[in-house]
Structure formats: structure tokens, C-alpha cells
Amino acid sequence: MRGYFAVGVQGLSKEGNFGNLVRTAHAFGASFFFTIAAEKTFAKPGTDTSNSGDHLPYYPWASEDELILPKDCRLVGIELTDDAVDLPSFRHPTKAAYILGPERGNLTKSMQDKCEFIVKIPTRFCLNVATAGAIIMYDRVQSMGGFTDRPVRAGGPRETRVHQHGQPRFRSGTPDALKG
To answer: Would you kindly state where each structural domain of the chain is located, as residue ranges?
Structure first.
């Protein structure tokens, strides 16, 4: 899969949700994890059984004004609003940072304004923050991962998709150093 992604939460307060979400981010291949205005700094969450802190950078920013993302990284808010894009209709950016709201709350209006996109999971009501994050990451991997298309009938594909590497293409001819 090309590109990268990060996952963050604004105003997170529960250690269990932190551990679950950072472990899931690690499992799905996130490049980093962040919190904004978390009620506390999460050092060793008990629910992170993969020890993600050894493998995934964690940035605990005190406020949304401190948020620094890599060049060209697009901020995607996950929020249940009327004008948000439904997740099944959303094309994920190649370079993205997904930000979720806190438990029993929403992304602040100023954070929503910082987001290039607001996406919602089409549910009847809000989900647990760790569950919502897992759904977003699964959708990203499923839609960008280069998997075989789903078959028309029930069941899995008959053949697995194998990527074939071709010869390199150069805009102005093959460089002398690569000529045989």
C-alpha cells in the first residue's frame, strides 16, 4: 500500500480506549499516533498488548494549535455530522492523519475547521472511539490495499491477486549507469 496514515484523538480520557486504538493503529500499519488535549498522558496502557510504544511514535500535543503534520498530510476528521461524507463513499488520501473526537463528545468546531475532510461512519448513533478508529483503518486498508475485487457471488475469490513488477520507466531514456 502506498502512502502513510496516522491516527489521533482529541480530548481522550480513558486508558482502555487509548490502548485499544493505538494497538489497532499498530496492527494496521499506522506511521504514528497522536492525542490532542488528552486528559492525561498515557504511558503504559494495559490494553496495548503489542507494546505499540516500541514500534509506533506517539505525539501527545497539549492543544490543537500545537498539532504539526508532515508536509502534504491531509487532516481527516471523523465525526457524525449531517454534512460529513459517508465513509463508503470517501476516497482516502494517500497521506492522511485521521482525528477522532473524545468519549461522549465531539471534535471541537475549531478542530473540524482545521480538517480538510469530515467523514462519518453511517451508523444510527455514535460508536466507541476505539471501535470507530478500527473501522476507519479497516476501510483505508480495504480500499487502498490492492486486494482482489470481491466476487459477485458469496464467498472468496478463486484466485489471489499477485502484484507483477515491470521494468522501470524513465522519462528521458535509460540512464547510462543502468545500461547493460
So the answer is: 4-144
